[in-house]
Amino acid sequence: MFGRREPVPFAFVAEADRFRSNVTPPPRERLSVGQMAGRWLTGLTIVAGLVGSLVIGTPALSPDHSAQQPQQSQASERR
Questions:
Q1: Angle at the Cα of 73 (from 71 to 74), degrees rounded to 5?
Q2: Percentage of the chain with pLDDT > 90?
Q3: What is the pTM of this model?
Q4: DSSP letter at 18?
């Protein structure tokens, strides 16, 4: 069922780690104008969303000054 495995010499394994190919990969294709514009718009949208959420969320994080004044509930007004 199982085939006999032959041992691999250690020199071969060490040599495989150092192997470098002399084949160069093909040059990368240049992006078209539409692709570059799309990437810029995507990045601009993400940055605008982060800035907008910061601007909208900042008032919610500020301390509420009206909470320092004592408040009466409606139940205390009905006696």
A1: 140
A2: 37
A3: 0.48
A4: T
